[in-house]
Fold these 4 entries.
Entry 1:
Amino acid sequence: MPHHFNNYVAGRWVPAASGRSVENRNPANTDDVVGVFPASGAEDLNEAVAAARAAYERWRKVPAPVRALKVQRAGELLRERKEEISRQMTREMGKVIAETRGDTQEGIDTAFYMAGEGRRLFGVTTPVELPDKFGMAFRRPVGVAGLITPWNFPMAIPTWKVFPALVAGNAVVIKPATYTPATVCELGLILEEAGVPPGVFNVVCGPGSTVGEAMLEHPGVDVISFTGSSEVGRHINEVAGKKLKRVSLELGGKNAQIVLADADLELALEGVLWGAFGTTGQRCTATSRLILEEKIHDKFVKKLLDSAAALKLGDGLDESVQVGPLVSATQRETVHSYVEVGKEEGAELALGGEFYEEGECKKGYFYRPTVFLGVKPTMRIAREEIFGPVLSVFKVRDADEAIEVLNDSSYGLSSSIYTRDVNLAFRAVEDLEAGITYVNGPTIGAEVHLPFGGVKDTGNGHREGSFTVFDVFTEWKTVYVDYSGKLQRAQLDVEE
């Protein structure tokens, strides 16, 4: 019998009010039912928001270091259960076990980092312009945070949002991705055991068309944090913006790796294989464009094709597997449709471009690692986010053209350059239009204590990770204390 999961509302695990539920199946083996989950709607979301609003009034008055201890305890529990959570995540999402262990570790690291921030949450003291007067500013929680999280990082991205929101003093309602709700339910169990009070953290499973829309419209939700596609992000910004909600959007990417002629080519090859085909290309930071200086283009492409063709596909619970399935049949069809577009546009399909259905893989949504050569910047496969194991290769004359091609994108999340020339490296750091730049490293691999986010269509200017995430989940309060014992009129009483 498959495990039945429930929503977590006001400290209780409850089914959807409608009684409806949906199955979630392993994308590597659709015979394997990961669990049965509530098919929730607006009524369930409303109950969760009501619980969060009531709990917020108590939670915001708990000292921040005490709130942070709950998050620290959650990190300890995540560490204790890392293998169990990671194996379930591989069954749920499909990526290989080494990556889901990394996903869980990201949650652990975020917990411990944000627990430390509970003793900081630094404010500002500053001189003021009048005598016998004091000025300061400090952070206060926003209220109820509505979180909408994606399926590709089922633990890491929810914890990026949940832990700072809680440390800052907000109550939380989270709608996990439809494909990966089990991991967020496990996070709910952990926060419950860690002692987070009832109503402070709530989980409502269900589709974006019902639960997500209800969250955007609900007057009791004060801030929305969303990670997903730019198309959905624009809709969220439009709906929530009309209600003057604070909105944080971390959206798509069309990330590129530059390899110059002086680079360590073996290192660059390892980087692009990991960046393009890790997580089966299902990362917002995945390397979907490879820009090669013409002097080394042919040599590098041969190494790339040989190495990519040798990658082992299969069930991610097999430690020897390097590439898992796509998350769903729909996602696989989307990826394949882009491959057909690339062929129609005149790009050379040098590798892959088809379903992989050998042996046990016929039961899952596998797709061969795919490489296009001769790609032009105007092609759709060069401009649109595919979110699959598809790499587009460009040939350029020199570093100037490489930077120009990389920047010729509506996205600006992550970027990478391989070179031994320190001058070119620092010039790239300055000139590449991206929120993240790696020098001699792939486009993937963010760390929790540094800001994460991008420019252009990749988001709306906010950052996750680091202390900068508190700009999403806190408001600034400014305080003036006049101890002069008389009325002092600012800007009028200052003597020149």
Entry 2:
Amino acid sequence: MFTIGHASSCVGLLAAALLLAIGGPVGLAAAEPAYRMTFLDDRTHSEQIVEARVLVEAVDGGVLAEDVEGRLWSITPDRLRSKIGTAQEFEFMDADSLGEALRAELGAGFESHKTPHYVICSDTGDAYAEWVGTLFERLQRAFLQTWRQAGWDLAEPAAPLPAVVFRTQQEFAAYALKDAGPEVADKPGYYSIRTNRIVLYDLATAGMNEGALDLGEVERRVASAPERVATIVHEATHQIAFNCGMHTRYADTPMWLAEGLAMYCETPDLKTGSGWRTIGRLNVDRLRQYREFTAQRRAGDSLQTLICDEARFRDPSRMPDAYAESWALVDYLMRDRRDELVKYMQGIAAKPRLHWEDGDTRLAEFTAVFGDLQDIEADCSRHIRRLRAR
């Protein structure tokens, strides 16, 4: 699950009707000016001062900005106090500066652990932070290699990717409730599109009196909770996808696509410390859920409603089935129609920020690449019937 955060400002910017996209979908394609922005944060109702680049500017003066930590700010004109050019080119924080900023925000007891592509700020101790960092790096290498082999040479993230790891589930829940809302507070973790952070808690300490002392002990403890490790991998996949040019934050990325891809990657490989053999391995839990869904509850227009909108993902009673169907569709497309899937995803990646398509447009874009929906339904069903849970 990924979270967008409070969207009222996004809606306000969209209502301005004419939008000028300034930044690209990922990274820094060319030198961009940096601005010092002062504004009222609609979430905390406090004044914020950030150094940022402008991604979208509305004709009424509202902006979508990205600050040097990678956070997105949707600022309506009534809340924008000032926007002053700094005469400097925009640059993201380096790993050291990002670690210091996260520690200052989170407070005493938090330390930062750096890897080549991540900054992990935690109060869990070194062993668990090292394990998380190793897991993230292995996943990122395998993720990018998978898509290179599919003919899509995605970029490495342009800046260090932040992660926050809390020692206890209670700390995590308190933070998540304020940051992203109650729907994620009882999960093992989430990725926030707004802040670009993965937020987790220490699985190796859960139910224990004390944290793991070394990497080997962490690995032994987490091996007993593979489904929770899968959640970490799922959220880390979202973060990579939104930072390598595959998805664009605050743009129209269909949820079936984003969630289906994360589930395609979420089967973790815990038996080796190097490499990653399990992207695309059969996701037994999702397969079982999907088969139960098709046997008992699946409506005739299920594939169409999955593609057209996110209503089923927003309904807790229908969400598990929507996730399972998203996995089934992506698994079929990845295995049998990968070239077309890459073409479709490249079109999605190029969409402008703060513009959301209606259901008819989404369906037309999908069928323009993959063909008749009934044929896709039949082919996907045959694909799923061939799968065998091991």
Entry 3:
Amino acid sequence: MELGYFLELGINGALAGLMYSLVAMGIVLIYKSSSVPNLAQGALTMVGAYVVLGFAQGAGLSMWLAIPLAMLTMCALGVAIERVALRRLAGRPIVMILMMTLGLDIFLRAGTMAISGGTARPMRIGISDEPMFLGPLLLNRAYVVGAAVALFLFVCFVLFFRTRRGAVLRAISDDYMASWSVGISVERGVALSWALSSMVATAAGVLWGSIQGVDQSLSLLLIKGITVAVLGGMDSLGGAILAGIGLGAFEALASGVLDPMLGGGSRDLVVALVLIVTIMVRPHGLFGRHDIERL
């Protein structure tokens, strides 16, 4: 195979990996501010895309008005999830909260399919299908736009966590009881993290929906998002970006080699292997904080 082919695969894979990072950032935002591993991020991504379609096709709004309205709606949904489902679990064992997010994922997927049906629906957001050229290399224009959005949101969240409110969220993540004792509203902080995560999920749903259509398969982006978050470190936004680039490029290159031999379908295998090896070898990720408890 030619070098240009591998360069093209690697660059497009890295751009797709940055779009995986959008899902991972939603997971990291909640974990970074509340130490809760959110297994419902894939379902939130799917719901966000359907809400955008609801405003655009159901209400007849332009796509560029439908997207911010959908983000506000999803922020409200994130706050409602914290208020109704998670607030009463504060201070409970983490496994209970984990199971709650898993149940939430199933509920959101089933509820959305019951309302909207299972037929894939196209989403047009104005990105041309024409490829971009980087010298002799062809780049997927939608991947380029998605990567730019991911980097922009990353910068916004890095700046946010340097503010007073961001410091409050980090304090909540470190110790719920200590935060309560100094007058921090843990409930509001956790609700804010869910609102921000739901907003990021909407951005991911719109971008991926414009590429592959809007249906239940969008919820499967959770697998890629979890892998990126674990590889980069569950509490590291920068790790999510770098791990997304690395995973996307490795997935594309490995599938380029393996697919001709296996007949296709190697992408998910590669991602699963990366997740398993990361958990076995470096469970706190490449850039995550390694907490050591001394007894």
Entry 4:
Amino acid sequence: MNSHRVVVIGAGLAGCCAALEAAKRDFNVTLIDEHPQAPSSMSLDAPYFYGARLPATLSDAGAVADRVLGANALLLDCLDAGVEVLTNTCVWANLMPGPNLLYTDEKRLGLADGERSWFLPYDDLIIATGARDLVLSFPGWQLPGVLGAQAAGALLTRYQALGGTKAVVLGSGNVGLRLARQLLDAGIEVAAVVEVAASVRGDPALQAGLVAAGVAFHTSSVIDSAIGEQQVRAVRVCALDQQGLPVPGSEECIDCDTVCIAIGVVPNLELAAQSGCKATYDAARGGWVPETDDCGRSSLEHIYVVGEAAGVCDKGVLDSVQHLERARRAAVAIGTPQGAEWKPTTASAAAPLAADAPNEWLRALLAQGGLSVVLCQCEEVTRGEYIALEAPRYLQPSERRRAGPIDASNRASQDFVKRMTRCGMGHCQGRRCRDHAALLLAHANGQPVGSIVPGSFRAPVRPLPLSAIAGPDESEAVSRTWPIWFQPLNEGEMG
């Protein structure tokens, strides 16, 4: 094994494939994955929207680790191939020499495992962080039992700890249909699949299997609210007319204890964006995606982005062949100069039907629920307060005055609107509301969502406890004499 260190982030199919290929080429390979996660980390909805109901069985760290690691056969193959595997470890930053980092001349990653934080140098980096849930809000979405499709899938297949016995799935793309099948296979009843479009968006064969299993499909329908007090006990859905508007008097209640939001998924862009990789908006690949070539090379030399982190589409949900091939090519390309001829693959020429699903859902949810629905749970900002740029509620009326008019360009900037309203500044770091907020700004301004300036990503891109980043205690001498730093200076002394 040579000393060239290749670090792969994410132990999904693409990440493990890249790690195995790199190990075959005698690189020094480290594979990092944040699963199995502690409940404290999952409660912050990173990386998925787990919601407020986390089963008590997750507190048994040993049993959880056995389930998660046992569910990933490729991870065991990586260990057999000599790959260093770090689990329950998140990457919170990619630090590279430059104007903002002058004290080191090596590339390094900031890692943390909940108890400590440290740095790991690397030569080449492969980002395979997958995709996360696209969440749109509705009345009752804060109730325990409401969660995203990615989270539900992880709890089902990795953690075997979803909880609940009867689910409603929102969205009929392949993400939703696959999840419904997984729920049934796990012995959980699927009461309904709800879809705003007039027909099911996903794979016909999957749909046929679900219909045969007794799953009801409510097309041209939207969720009105999740009903419950301590947790979800039902949902109310409403029919939509041909213009996508709610039909008065069509409300129907469906008993359930779990609501899975499968409206869409978006690439996990945080680490690539924080690193400085160029990104472009492509609705057919899930929104903002890193610019990469056919080998997964990003705009930054020595950084590759593969798998769903490089883009998602409805077809790719069921067929991972292309993702795996690009992950393999990324490992093969390591050591080959990128050169001036590097060109990213072109954006998709035409977006498939499912690419507009988030906008259709947003329009239906706005028509049914209006602007009073909470957009940001952490800061309790409603949709109306967000698009009106209302100051946070905790400010006194005298403190809520604006210094001047706000131009159109600022109204189309997520960072600017975030600073005005605090939407996205909560402990979840905007994971629940970021994509909804971008869609809402585009809708309010009459612009395509790709023209909205996305919010920036800064380190740490994962929530860290202070204990993990705190420095060592000062020496006894410093502790004994520290008050001298606060003594007034004598005349003539310099501070």
